[in-house]
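In the design runs reported in the main text, the only information available to the sequence generator was the tokenized backbone. The following block is the verbatim input for one such run; it is reproduced so that readers can re-run the procedure and compare outputs position by position.
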């Protein structure tokens, strides 16, 4: 059976993709940001995931005001890096996992989540930057990726409660898939930031750190944060953090935090990054969250 073994959260700051692509990640101003991913690169090599379910938001790249799915799942064979204005990033094509993705779509819809099924879409920094931060510069991404896009760009985005519940449903779905697969769930986006308007440039470090401190055990409280509270405390784009709740919901009740990295300044947001491994109880059983 397929199994979710670990979860990872990370900001998906587009500038970091640019820094990697221009070969500037060793520069003194950027080195501390990338240093926090050295552990991650070694860790992922030991974990060898077969598939990553990568929760991200499309930033008006494939979905614009013409249509805005709240939750969309990429069921295609492959996904091209998007042209976000400066040409597509020179990173490998993302290989999908159509069999598992269609299984997830079916199971999630039957569990009450009305997923939009997408077979063709280009994937922007929300998806490609986390892949680069974790896998580095590679000829091919070393695993298959299922893009799961969440609307956090156009009000209203889904609630934290709904996102935590979606994570739980993803876990149930994966566990019913008959192939033996090591699956990870990555939640991307955040941390606090606001790109436009009077408060553009807002970063709330206290709020960011409290969110990371609470995600392991106090996820129910985090899931009750309203969109208005996200905007007030963490800026208009801070609600990207709901995607970390999907990741958390897909894991066991008990997880080990094996790594954390937080760095300011980077761009308009802090870089936040966390890794959780599932912990089984004394009988070797997983306990659902
Ligand atoms: C930034 C962060 C984002 O998550 C994003 O989508 C765009 C920009 C930033 O920090 O600049
Ligand atoms: Fe973003």
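Verbatim output:
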């Amino acid at each position: 059976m397929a199994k979710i073994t670990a979860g990872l959260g990370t900001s998906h700051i587009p500038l970091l993709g640019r820094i990697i692509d221009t070969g500037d990640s060793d520069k003194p101003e950027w080195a501390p940001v990338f240093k926090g991913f050295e552990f991650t690169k070694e860790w992922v090599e030991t974990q060898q995931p077969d598939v990553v379910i990568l929760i991200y938001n499309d930033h008006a790249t494939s979905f614009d005001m013409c249509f805005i799915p709240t939750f969309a799942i990429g069921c295609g064979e492959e996904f091209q890096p998007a042209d976000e204005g400066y040409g597509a990033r020179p990173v490998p094509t993302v290989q999908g996992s159509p069999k598992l993705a269609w299984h997830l779509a079916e199971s999630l819809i039957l569990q009450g989540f009305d997923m939009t099924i997408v077979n063709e879409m280009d994937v922007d920094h929300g998806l490609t930057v986390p892949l680069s931060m974790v896998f580095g510069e590679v000829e091919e991404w070393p695993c298959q990726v299922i893009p799961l896009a969440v609307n956090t760009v156009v009000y209203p985005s889904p609630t934290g409660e709904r996102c935590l519940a979606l994570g739980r449903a993803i876990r149930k779905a994966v566990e019913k898939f008959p192939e033996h697969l090591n699956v990870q769930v990555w939640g991307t986006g955040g941390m606090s930031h606001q790109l436009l308007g009077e408060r553009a440039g807002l970063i709330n470090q206290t709020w960011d750190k409290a969110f990371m401190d609470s995600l392991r055990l106090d996820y129910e409280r985090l899931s009750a944060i309203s969109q208005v509270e996200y905007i007030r405390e963490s800026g208009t784009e801070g609600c990207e953090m709901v995607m970390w709740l999907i990741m958390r919901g897909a894991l066991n009740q008990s997880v080990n935090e094996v790594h954390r990295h937080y760095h300011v300044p980077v761009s308009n947001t802090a870089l936040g990054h966390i890794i959780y491994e599932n912990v089984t109880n004394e009988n070797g059983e997983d306990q659902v969250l």
